[in-house]
Write a structure and sequence with these properties.
By secondary structure, the protein is an alpha/beta fold. The protein has one domain: 3-Layer(aba) Sandwich (Rossmann fold). Helix content is 25%, strand content 31%. It has six helices and 14 strands. The strands form three sheets. It has an eight-stranded mixed beta sheet, with helices on both faces. Strands 6-5-7-11 form a four-stranded mixed beta sheet, with helices on one face. A hairpin with a 1-residue loop joins strand 12 and strand 13. Helix 1 crosses helix 6. The protein is globular, with a radius of gyration of 16 Å.
Length: 212
């Protein structure tokens, strides 16, 4: 039986994520853990997160999971969700500037707030709600999901990868931004698949069945 580990560093939406993964992975063991050995032994790893960049980096350090996360991201099917995408970058503008894990070249920046919606009013920050996701690459995790399907977002910052080859999907919210990246065994998204109804569950199912 495969073991899927959801990394617990106290700032992820752990219950919703674990329940959603369990729903699509009936034949796997789904474990929520901050034990580096358990993460190391996993067949697949999900790295969720929410909150501020500085708090997330501090929590990763406090739970002593950074090395295990780095090793998982380099060697096995790995899914980052929300802040689990952002912390993979080099640096964030949040909290006056925060150094991140630096696993993917790029930065995290805040929405400008200068853009207006269709009603002519300034767009609200955080970006919260359902938005269309435009698939930029053909990837196994998009299987069975129509291009421009809607997923659920809650965020004020977004990633700006240095390498365009990393971009797996984009979304429009005043400006077009990267909402998913992919490289080798790693896939990470800004939206919340666990809150995105059938298409979100399909993405999680695709991750569970992803063969490298």
């Amino acid at each position: 039986m495969e073991k899927i580990v959801i990394v617990d560093y106290s700032l992820g939406n752990l219950r919703s994520v674990s329940k959603a993964v369990e729903h699509v992975a009936a034949d796997a063991e789904v474990v929520v853990s901050d034990d580096a050995r358990v993460i190391h032994d996993a067949d697949r790893v999900v790295f969720p997160g929410q909150g501020a960049a500085r708090d997330c980096m501090a929590a990763i350090s406090d739970h002593h999971v950074e090395r295990a996360v780095r090793e998982a991201a380099a060697s096995k099917p790995f899914l980052g969700i929300c802040m689990g995408l952002q912390v993979l970058m080099d640096h964030s503008e949040e909290n006056g500037g925060t150094d991140l894990l630096g696993m993917m070249p790029g930065k995290v920046q805040r929405f400008s707030g200068d853009f207006k919606g269709e009603n002519g009013l300034p767009l609200k920050i955080p970006h919260m709600g359902w938005s269309q996701v435009e698939q930029i690459i053909d990837h196994p995790l998009w299987q069975g999901i129509a291009d421009r399907s809607r997923f659920y977002f809650v965020h004020s910052y977004f990633v700006v990868p240095e390498e365009s080859s990393l971009i797996a999907a984009t979304t429009e919210y005043g400006e077009r931004f990267t909402c998913a990246i992919a490289r080798d065994n790693l896939f990470a998204v800004q939206f919340h698949p666990e809150k995105s109804a059938d298409d979100g569950l399909q993405l999680l199912k695709n991750f569970v069945n992803w063969k490298l």
